[in-house]
Amino acid sequence: MTLTLLRQRALKIPSLIAAARRFNSSLVETEQDGEIFLVSIARPEKRNAVDAETAKELADAFRHFEIDDESSVVVLYGKGETFCAGYDLEYLSTRGPDEFLRWLTPPGEGDGPMGPTRLKLTKPVIGAIEGHAVAGGMELALMCDLRVVAEDAVMGMFNRRFGVPTVDGGTVRLPYIVGLSHALDLIMTGRAVHAKEALNIGLANRVVPKGKTVEEAVKLAKMLVCFPREALCADRKSVFYATFNADSFYDALTYEYSKGVKLQIMKDSIEGAKQFLQGKGRKGSFDDYLD
């Protein structure tokens, strides 16, 4: 990424450059594993509930990931046995409605209450879901492209019980992930969704043993890292455009073509064809991309 482009983006997101310099804190921890960037909510004593400062640190960590050319995939998880219990209701209860409304910002003018949920990330995000991912925590999970879920995990819009609004993209993303009928059920009732049901309705992509979600999410991330990056990111971007932005089917096809037909992708495609002729990936094998 050029310095000019970085500066242009920094004008749109004022804290972008600052985030690149500072993204570790006592509330949010990060780790680099090759091309994989790991982000963890580090408030296990609060079941990783998010307050204003945690939200800011989370958003900054994801901004760092976005501008870091060395990072291809991010894995989001919670320290301890809980992914995220949502917004910190203890913190919220000490604020008056007027103060809270002043802190909230509309999309396009600032981050969401949970932090990174409004960012337009151009690289894959994988969520490792242990324990509860509820209320705002479920909205963080929905922000992820893929969700690796523990077999005893619980998800749900638990904020329904207390009248806390869903304003981090939950009502926007969920229908596209599980379908309108399932989404309305989960959003209006706020009921718990366990791992088996989550897998059945598409809310979970993988279900793994308790305590193994980060390990399995990293394995999945390493598989994605093995693929040519330009084509993967172009296809990912096309999916999001077709889902949320396209005016028509033809518009989506045109966008897909414009992003796919680029010199670097064509070079990677030709190199991939040569590897296939040499025996790699024959008969649908992914062995070269798996541990």
Structure description:
The protein has 291 residues and is an alpha/beta fold. 47% of the residues lie in helices and 13% in strands. The protein is built from 13 helices and 9 strands. It has helices spanning 3-12, 16-21, 52-67, 89-93, 97-103, 136-143, 170-178, 180-189, 195-201, 213-226, 229-245, 249-260, 263-277, and strands at residues 28-33, 36-41, 73-78, 125-129, 132-134, 146-150, 154-156, 193-194, 206-208. The chain has a 6-stranded mixed β-sheet with strand order 1-2-3-4-6-9, sandwiched between helices. It has a 3-stranded mixed β-sheet with strand order 5-7-8. A hairpin with a 2-residue loop joins strand 1 (28-33) and strand 2 (36-41). Residues 1-22 have low confidence and may be disordered.
Helix fraction? 40-55%
| Helix/strand order | HHEEHEHHEEHEEHHEHEHHHH
Tally of DSSP helical segments: 13
Structural class: alpha/beta
List low-confidence stretches. 1-22
Number of strands: 9
Strand line-up in the sheet with most strands: 1-2-3-4-6-9
Beta content: 5-15%
Overall pLDDT confidence: 85
End-to-end C-alpha gap: 31 Å
**Quick one: biggest sheet?**
6 strands, mixed
Radius of gyration based on Cα positions:
19 Å
Judging from the principal axes of the Cα atoms, what is the shape?
globular
Organism: Pocillopora meandrina
InterPro entries: ClpP/crotonase-like_dom_sf, Enoyl-CoA_hyd/isom_CS, Enoyl-CoA_hydra/iso
Protein name: Enoyl-CoA hydratase
Family: Belongs to the enoyl-CoA hydratase/isomerase family.
